[in-house]
Amino acid sequence: MDKLNTPILASSAGNMRKADGFTLLEVMVAMAILAITLVAVFQSQSQSISMASESRFITTASLLAQSKMTEMEVAAPGDLNSGSGDFGDDYPGYSWRTSIDSTQLEAIKKIEVTVSNERMASNNTFTLILYRFVAP
Predict the structure, then answer these.
(1) What HEC string does 104-135 produce?
(2) 49 within 8 A of 57, measured Cβ to Cβ
(3) Rounded to an integer, what distance in angstroms lies between the CA atom of residue 31 and that of residue 40?
(4) Could you state, in order of their start, the residue ranges of all structural domains in the chain?
(5) What is the tens place of the pLDDT at every residue in 21-56?
(6) Sheet containing 83-86: which strands, arranged edge to edge?
(7) N-terminal to C-terminal alpha carbon distance within the chain
(8) Residue 18 clears pLDDT 80, i.e. is over it
(9) What share of the chain is helix, strand, coil (3-state, %, to 5)?
(10) What is the pTM of this model?
């Protein structure tokens, strides 16, 4: 019964043979499935690289901001000044900015440390805020 549904081709010598292989439609459907799968894989890979870069920035910037904030915490109250700078050759592209602001309470100062990376196009700042008691 299987032989009735199998296409048979005639060769130039007049011999009859069975047609083997894939049809053009089957090949095109397989290629379309492969293309859709590859697009999804490449998009996932691109997103993974982007998330790793963002995660690296957040980790590094938070540690640098904590380091700068520690300097502000141990400084004498008279030495608290706003300023800016960079972290040198150890962290190229990273810079910091501090601001000291008054609050409604005279003895409390708001210290804000912002770390940024100029090499990143977006989401390139990290801010840490501390409220410190400063005796009047």
Answers:
(1) CCCCEEEEEEEEEECCCCCCCEEEEEEEEECC
(2) no
(3) 14
(4) 2-133
(5) 889 999 999 999 999 999 999 999 989 988 998 899
(6) 83-86, 94-102, 108-117, 125-133
(7) 102
(8) no
(9) 45, 30, 25
(10) 0.68
From CA 50, how far away is CA 41, in angstroms rounded?
14
* 1-14 exposure pattern, b = at least 16 Cβ within 10 A, e = fewer: eeeeeeeeeeeeee
Between residues 111 and 134, the one the model is more confident about: 111
Q: What burial class does residue 79 get, using C-beta atoms within 10 Å of its C-beta: 0-12 exposed, 13-18 middle, 19+ buried? A: exposed
Give the whole-angstrom CA distance, residue 104 versus residue 55. 36
* Structure-token pair, residue 99: 């601001």
- Name the CATH superfamily housing domain 2-133: GSPII I/J protein-like (3.30.1300.30)
The full DSSP string for 75-87 is S-GGG---EEEE-
Per-residue model confidence as pLDDT tens digits over 87-118: 999 999 999 999 999 999 989 999 999 999 98
